[in-house]
Amino acid sequence: MKERSKGSKLLKLLWKSKTGTVGLLIVLLVTLVAILANFIAPYDHTETNVSIRLLPPFWMEGGSTDYLLGTDNLGRDVLSRIIIGSKVSLLVGIASVIVAGAIGLFLGLVSGYYGKWIDQIIMRLVDSFLAIPNILFMLIILAVIGPSLISIIIVLGITTWVIYARMVRSETLSIKERAYVKSARAVGASDYRIIKKYILPNVISSFIVIATLNVATTIILESSLSFLGLGIQSPDVSWGLMLSDGRDYLATSWWVATFPGLAITITVLGIIFLGDWLRDVLDPKTK
User: Fold this and answer.
1) Residue 232: which of 260, 193, 267, 255 has the closest Cα?
2) Dist. CA 228–CA 237, nearest whole Å
């Protein structure tokens, strides 16, 4: 009953927030499209037909309702590729955030709780990662191990964990000095129990907010890597790869790059709107 009332309260707060509601609807729509991509895509995203290459969208002269958003330079249906590409872009965004979040959460808790030389080692490691621009670090690693879906998720995960580690460490340093944590330690509670029962629940709200917002960041990073040729490779498809394929046709066939660019923009904005609402609701500093 208590959980139900809490859920209804969150829904009421969400309904009051215009941007939060729009963000949630966008995220749900994109997620639903990604889940059902193989069923709703009109055509096979790898199917080529040079006889209809660079066909414009249906509302333009020469367009066809068979290909609502037109075709690319190889005659592949743009709409189908955007729909299938949503799976890859969302998978990379969510999976890499899970990898980065798990690393950052663990190291942040350990660093903040134990302090001393453990904290020094972890924070120097954080400083080392911050000293190198993320995109440069990713390019170097991908150039060595080669681009693939798994390698991109791993690279994005191991290069973006520092933001979680710093936030969790900061929160942990504050929480471990509170009276209830000191009381638990005084009665002989183990470190694991203290971290699990008293510290983790208090840092998880801020963690969720940052993780949500960083899904948008990682989608943009994946698109950047694919645009540079070190991201998703054919026959797989992502929105960033579609941008890369269409950059040579912007002057004559703008739709090849514009529609995947719009998909990235709308999805990222939806995630940001939802993340901002979550921050207002979950982050105690904003209350």
Assistant:
1) 260
2) 14
pLDDT digits (tens, 9 = 90+) for 24-58: 899 999 999 999 998 998 988 888 888 888 888 98
Asked if 74 and 246 touch (Cβ cutoff 8 Å), the reply is no
Mean pLDDT of the chain: 84
Q: Which of 246, 224, 200 is nearest to 92 (CA)?
A: 224
Of 192, 197, 212, nearest to 278 by C-alpha is 212
How big, in percent rounded to 5, are the helix, strand and coil portions of the chain? 75, 0, 25
68: buried, middle or exposed (CB in 10 Å: 19+, 13-18, 0-12)?
Answer: middle
Give the per-residue pLDDT at 7. Answer: 54
Q: How far apart are CA 81 and CA 59, in angstroms?
A: 19
Give the H or E element holding residue 159: helix 149-159
CA dihedral 219, 224, 227, 233 (to 10 degrees): -50
Q: What is the pTM of this model?
A: 0.83
| Chain segment 239-250, per-residue pLDDT in tens | 888 888 888 888
Cβ distance 247 to 255 under 8 Å? Answer: no
- Hey, which residues does 64 pair with through a beta bridge? 67
| Tokens describing residue 163 | 């933001």
**CA dist., res. 236 & res. 45, Å (int):** 9
Q: How many CB atoms lie within 10 A of CB 164?
A: 25
- Nearest-5° angle of CA 184, CA 189, CA 190? 135
- In this model, does residue 194 exceed pLDDT 50? yes
Cis bond before residue 235 (omega within 30° of 0):
yes
Q: What is the pLDDT of residue 19?
A: 81
